Amino acid sequence: MNASAIATDARPRLPRGVRLVNNEAQGGWVLLAPERVFKPDAIALEILKRCTGEATFGAIIDDLAATFSAPRERIATDVTALLRSLADKQLLEL
Amino acid sequence: MATNGATLHKPLGLLAELTHRCPLGCPYCSNPLALDGRNDELDTQTWARVFREAAALGVLQVHLSGGEPGARRDLVEITAAANKAGLYTNLITSAVGITDKTLGALADAGLDHVQISIQDNDPRTADHIAGYEGAFVRKNALAAEVVRRKLPLTVNAVMHRANIDHVADMVDLALKLGAGRVEIAHVQYYGWALKNRAALMPTREQVERAVAAVEELRRRHHGKIVIDAVVPDYYARFPKPCVGGWGRRSLNVTPSGKVLPCHAAESIPGLEFWNVRDRSLAEIWQASPAFNAFRGTEWLPEPCATCERREIDFGGCRCQAFAITGNARATDPVCHLSPHHDRVVEFTQSPQTDAYSYRR
Description:
- The structure holds two protein chains of two kinds.
- Chain A is α+β, with helices and mostly antiparallel strands.
- Chain A is 39% helix and 15% strand.
- Chain A has a three-stranded antiparallel sheet, with helices on one face.
- In chain A, helix 2 crosses helix 3 (72-88).
- The longest helix of chain A is centred in the C-terminal third of the chain and has 17 residues, at 72-88.
- By secondary structure, chain B is of the alpha/beta class.
- Chain B is 34% helix and 12% strand.
- Chain B contains 14 helices and nine strands.
- The radius of gyration of chain B is 20 Å and the shape is globular.
- Chain A binds chain B through residues 2, 15-19, 21, 23, 25-26, 30, 32, 34-35, 37, 87-90, and chain B through 10, 12-13, 55-58, 60-61, 63, 86, 88, 90, 112-113, 115, 150-152, 154, 180-181, 183, 222-223, 225-226.
């Protein structure tokens, strides 16, 4: 996995053609992408919900660290890995 | 519960075959040999209702396909209706018949994604395969317009004997066009492709080179483009889990409104298909005889019934079982455990031809 650092002022966002929606019939949140459907786990969902193109990467990490009372450094490592992996699959713009 | 006692899942995807009309004549077209005529096509309002019912049933994505969906004058209204129903909309097009202006209107109507088929990286070969002069140029132009409008683009590269050795060039072309995704779609032998099998079937050596090339291309282009590919199934050890399992994940509505578990299902004799003109999609999904014919795993023959892969591939593809063995309830003969597997091997070694029977 490519876990190289993400700039603190990057504003991760879902590109056009990728949508995070809450679908009752399918039992919760799903990430819709070109000819693919993903069911994010609880952690991925919390991260994805914050990738609005408005919040900076740094602010997202601060928010998650505060919300889940977890060490900021560890959150930053996990979120970087997830966002890089999503970007590699064309599911996220950094 | 489905009416045959199997667990009823929620469908994720709906393939909307808006029309069978198409200017191209690709010899591997997945449409049936007997094409629906224009006068039989569902109208705009009926499609809008189908989309609302699909969304209520749990469908997330609709694939607007054909034929060439651009042959419908109401394509923009149809797309808007699917978007309004809350569905993720995917346009599957040949590019011939979609003008730049139509694309703009589709984008404004909420279109989420465009998939363009490209027949080969060489313009002359591409137009020969499509049976349409100028198709390659038009496809490249529409692809550029899709990217310019920042819509996500998939290049669909259907691979067969005439172009399978160009797999790396096709991926390069997709990258050059700005596609985020490329499908290396090896021909599957149904409908027109079954008719043209002797002209389309690659050799084992070609398949092995292509599979190795895709592995290398995935490494080389990691993070730049998503490469989706599957092994051409006559050369696979196990069958594909056709449409994710019969009546389990997806449904297909034909131009005239018949609801099929997969696009080739009409090739199986004796199945009773219900029509959206007569019933709701929910009723059809749950109770249509065709959907319940092979739903679940109760009906599976041996060696599938006791196979540890029965929940992975569900006995493989019913249409292929019928096409090759004459029995739709047989194990998909692509599986090396099928008693009929030797027939599949034989087809890969049969005498070949270069003449196409174009879809017309």
